[in-house]
Amino acid sequence: MRPSLALPPVLPLLTILVLIGPVLAGLWGTVSAAFGHLPVAGLQGPSLTPFQTLWEWPGLSASVRLSLVTGGLATFLSLAITLLLLAGWSGTRPFRAVLRLLSPLLSVPHAAAAFGLMFLIQPSGWISRALSPWLTGWQRPPDVLFVQDSMGLAMTLGLVVKEVPFLLLISLAALSQIDTQGRLRVALALGYGRMAAWMFGVLPALYARIRLPVYVVLAYSMSVVDVAVILGPNTPPPLSVQIVRWMGEPDLTLRTLASAAALVQLALVIGALLLWHGGERALAALGRRLIYCGPRLSRDGLWRAFGLMTALLCVGLVLAGLAGLVVWSFAARWSFPDILPEGYSLRSWQRNGPAAMETLTTTFAIALAATLAGLVLTLGCLETEERRNLRLTRKGLWLLYLPLLVPQTAFLPGMQTLLLGFSIDRTLWAVMLAHLVFVLPYLRLSLEGPYKAWDARLGAVGAAMGASPSRIFLTLRLPMLLAPVMTALAVGMAVSVGQYLPTLLVGGGRVQTLTTEAVALAAGGDRRAIGLYGLLQTAAALLPFVLALTLPLIVWRNRRGLQHG
Amino acid sequence: MAEGLRLRALRIKHGDRPLLELDLTVPPATILSVMGPSGVGKSTLLAAITGQMSADFGLEGEILLNGRDLCPLPPQERRVGILFQDHLLFPHLSVGANLAFGLAPQVRGRARRARIKDALAEIGLEGFHNRDPETLSGGQKARVALMRMLLSEPDLLLLDEPFSRLDATLRSQMRDLVFTFARDRALPVLMVTHDAADAEAAGGPIVQLES
Predict the structure, then answer these.
(1) Domain parsing of chain A, residue ranges
(2) How far is B113 from chain A (nearest CA, A)?
(3) Digit-coded pLDDT (tens) for B50-106
(4) Which terminal residue of chain A, N or C, has fewer Cβ atoms less than 10 Å from its own Cβ?
(5) What is the ipTM for the molecules in this complex?
(6) Which homologous superfamily does the CATH classification assign to the domain defined by A50-324?
């Protein structure tokens, strides 16, 4: 039988190039700058000066410690909360309720969630207002560092509330490939408690499937910049923030220092991933011995309650934070310890609105262009793989996750330096390309399941009636997959809207999105402007989801067969 | 020139393991039934004829349809129609549009609309043109699926357990309809079934596959 398509697999090759090209080129740029080779600044390497300078920087050990502790702790807590909730409640009514609240939170940009959290926990925040003065006796905001604390606890919390929804939804997708209910029923019938049944019977199969996303959370949390700028300590900041500061200096020679620090950051992440992997194996070995002993652990009511409470706390913090953004953006005079402002006004919207709307347009243009390009590549890949009977191997999966595993701070500085050499940095196109790198993995992750689940016999029927593969793709498969394609579009746009570092470094200050504008406000402390930008940022990420949910309902309103999946 | 379907020294292998060997002819207006336990390769045989066999199977021998060798042709150029046990109507298209999907694009404009209306009348579904296929009964869906396939004017009809999801009365009605339509059009038919009653009603040769 001859292959149904004679073309070489152009789109998969292009996709691989987009996925690894910028990462490798960026890493190369970082490595050469780290060893003192930076022609733009008139520096010829190789030399070890950047590393010597970095070594002499007094903040180094504190920065490194912050990155490790906040990243590791945030990942551990997020995973623990996710697993506790799943073990105690998956498949129950309260679980579905939490899920309905959590899923939209996934698209709330990290920066907006961090600002919301800041409005809650800062000394003059809602929590402190609610307890003052009757409990605390405070008449003025206390002089305590609840945010930007030197331990990075606020920052860790800010990461956890955003990573729990991510891990939870990834886990749910993975769980649908495992016979969860069957495994649970058997273990329950053997007398195991609900949580033990889940932990012993389901978790081992689940973890193998969510390992890479967990690594993504670890790599991301260790090298995050926007959340760290908003909630993290300043002197010294986590290493990633310091790298960005050095990159932003007008003195180009400081870029070699930044690049050296970026390589240290990369080494830290690799080390942490190896450590985590070791921890996984140790825990798995312990778990196997425990399972062999057969403890039923049937009295798990307290743990179940604890799991549900922590998950609800995450939801509550983000939602209350978003409410804080709304109130601040409309607040007139609002003195401590009043729980609400004395009045509301449109002043902040009138003053910042026009500029913000312009930024909103840029944000949407970048998000839409990057996502549409990504959709063409992703659908093209899936269709080519199907026609040529290719399958995504384990190696392919690592490739897909590569841009999410290599810390952004490690390869974006190099990418920027390279683009600077070609003088195409700081253009809209360069920013779109940078966003595409991060949008692609998420598009693939959200489309793969629905694409493969499509009943291939429908295509067989079409072909039997003389329809070509292209006609089957365009008139049958694509229209029937309208809902998942729209969801993927929304996911991609939300990812793009939330990007901070790619926009900042590749845009070089000339391309502004809502996210870069919002984070830039963090230092100023104009809470009304912060509320407004955070709110618009959230809206920009959520709006595509509303469209994704409603459009298929309108288009297929008279087609019952497409309304349940 | 040989009329109908001719499977000449056909051998299908799964990897290195031989799955089945067949040598048979299905003349026009004849319904040949293939029976046998599950896993014996009945569905693979149909996939081989439609050209949608998965790559881990190997094929030797010839598949000739009215003298044409099908093996080098992609599925959409084989003119081989197939009905599955599920109706597989396209859920995003109306009943009329489902039928139109089968009709050759050369039939245009008013003639096209008329052909679809006639086809609907022929299966007793006048006035169903704009209906959502999901609102049809099981028997109605099965009739639309049959007519859709016939409108594409295949040279051969394959039936993959086509009646096993229908209840007893519907089953014999549908069986009669499919067989009558196929004989009227002088189509060779190859039917895969579990049910001896299906094979008997077909009134044609029966091939028993053994594992």
Answers:
(1) 7-37+350-565, 50-324
(2) 18
(3) 988 888 888 999 999 999 999 999 898 999 999 998 889 999 999 999 999 999 889
(4) C
(5) 0.85
(6) MetI-like (1.10.3720.10)
Number of cross-chain residue pairs from A and B with Cβ atoms under 8 Å apart: 89
For A259-282, what is the mean pLDDT? Answer: 96
Helix (H, G, I), strand (E, B) or coil at A444: helix
pLDDT exceeds 90 at position B147: yes
Answer whether residue A527 shows pLDDT above 80.
yes
Instruction: Please indicate if any CB of chain A lies within 8 Å of the CB of B90.
Output: yes
Query: In the prediction, which pLDDT does B2 show?
Result: 60
Q: Which CATH architecture has domain A7-37+350-565?
A: Orthogonal Bundle (1.10)
Residues of A in Cβ contact (< 8 Å) with B133: 561
pLDDT-based confidence at A2, cuts 50/70/90?
Answer: very low
Same fold, A7-37+350-565 and A50-324: yes
Test B72 with A2 for CB contact under 8 angstroms.
Answer: yes
Cβ-defined contact of B72 to A457 (cutoff 8 Å) = no
Mutate to test the interface with A, among B87, B90, B99, B131 (most CBs of A within 10 A): B90
Write the residue in B75, B92, B152 that is nearest to A479 by C-beta: B92
Residues 6+ apart with CB under 8 A from A341: A327, A330, A331, A332, A333, A334
| Beta-carbon separation of B82 and A4 below 8 A | no
Instruction: Give the type of residue at A504.
Output: L
Contacts of A389 in chain B (CB under 8 A): 54-55
User: Which band of pLDDT confidence, cut at 50, 70 and 90, is reported for residue B133?
Assistant: very high
Q: Is B92 on the interface with A (CB under 8 A)?
A: yes
Is A258's pLDDT higher than 80?
Answer: yes
Distance separating alpha carbons of residues A132 and A538, to the nearest angstrom: 30
The SS3 of residue B208 is strand
Number of other CB atoms surrounding residue A326 within 10 Å: 15
Query: Could B55 and A389 be called an inter-chain contact, meaning their C-beta atoms sit closer than 8 Å?
Result: yes
Query: Residue A561 above 50 pLDDT?
Result: yes
